Structure formats: C-alpha cells, structure tokens
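Sanity check. The docking grid for cytidine-5'-monophosphate depends on where the pocket ends up, so I'm generating a full predicted complex first rather than guessing from homology. Inputs follow.
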Amino acid sequence: GGRVVVTAGPTREPIDPVRFISNPSSGKMGYAVAAVAARRGAEVTLVSGPTELADPVGVEVVRVQTAEEMARAVDAAAAAMDLFVGAAAVSDYRPATPSASKIKKGAGDETLVLSRTPDILASLGARYGGRKDGPVLVGFAAETEEVIARAREKLKSKRCDLVVANKVGGPGAGFGSDTNRVALVSAAELAEIEGPKERIGEAILDWILPVLEGRRPRER
Ligand code: C5P
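Predicted complex below; grid placement will be based on this.
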C-alpha cells in the first residue's frame, strides 16, 4: 500500500534536433524494481527515460527525455511518497545552448559547452534525508573502480538510506545485462547480491521494508 517512485533508464540531452548526449542504460534494473514493488502491492510511478522496455504491469509510467524533465516528473509524483528508488542513469551534463537547427560540419574541431543538470536524488536527500517523517531514499552507484568506497561517499553526500553499488565494465552486470552483481551499502551494513535483476529488486525491497515500517505513515 505504500507510494513508490522509481526512476529508470538513461536521459537524452539534445545537442541539436538530430543529436544528443546519452548513455547505454537499458532501464532493466529500475523496471525490475518497479515491477516487484507493484506485485507486492505498492502504488508505483515509474519515471523513465527512453527505453525499449514494455510498461510493467500495474505501474504508472511517465516517459521523459531530459534530466530536467525527469526532475520535474519526479517532483510531480513525489507528494507523500514513502519510497524513492533512483535507478536512472541521469546525465550529469547537458549542452548549454542546444541548437534549434542541425549543426553543420566544418573543416575544424568543434567545442561543446556543457551545463550541469539537476541532481534529482541529491535534492530529495537535501529535502528529506535523515528525517523520520520523510520517504526512504535509495540511490544507485555505477562505478568502474573503488565501488564500495564511492557508494559510501554517495550515501553521505546525497543523504540516502541505501546505495546499490554496481561495478560496471565486467560481464554479467551493469548496463544492458539481465543479471547484475551489486552490493547494498547502508550506514550499518553491506550485503552482496548476484542474480537476475528481478531478484536484485526483491532484495532491495526486502532491505527497505523494515526501514519503512520504522517510519511514521506519510500524510496523504
Ligand atoms: O553521482 P552519481 O550520478 O554517480 O549518482 C548516482 C545516483 O544519483 C543514482 O541513483 C542516480 O539515479 C542519481 N542521480 C540523479 N540525478 C542526477 C545524477 C544522478 O538522481 N542528475
């Protein structure tokens, strides 16, 4: 019966009408979390960047393109949420001034000026982090090295309750894969899980349940 908001997939930041900056996130991990939460009876909103995946059964899906659109959609869905899971691979930068017309190639090199995008998880952390009457906040950390140390830093800097740490680059884990190998990193514990992304979703929700039950019910 809880209210859950999940972000998933990549974002696309336009350079001009036919080009964008993005990443290879498939959205599978976030879709798996949303599907499992809905099966367990939660009211789930999935804010998804462009993916090839079908809407999970029983989930409200809001499709967006850019990090700014994702931030606005999360804001709109965030009222009285009990749990936020940020599984999206949100672009950290966007072209500062996207061109309205297709950029023509010239003989020389080009420079692209980038601006920072809003950090959705960090702003939820700044608003609700450490509050017993706020939602439980779960982030992901995809890293190529020093995975656990970086996950611990993220736990503190983004003020979340749990960071799901993910080593990217190896086989059978990370971008596009149906399976994953992650560490659940919280202030008190560290648990390693391996298997299909659905199973990882189950494990994340198993970890969250007792934390949720320790919170005051949110006002509706
Ligand atoms: O800082 P980094 O991008 O490694 O953090 C990853 C976590 O933060 C993920 O949970 C991701 O969904 C979230 N994030 C976000 N908005 C951003 C960047 C990351 O919500 N602009």
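Relevant for the grid: The first strand starts at residue 3 and ends at 8.
Also worth noting: The pocket of cytidine-5'-monophosphate is lined by residues 7, 67, 86, 88, 90, 92, 117-121, 139-141, 154 (CB under 6 Å).
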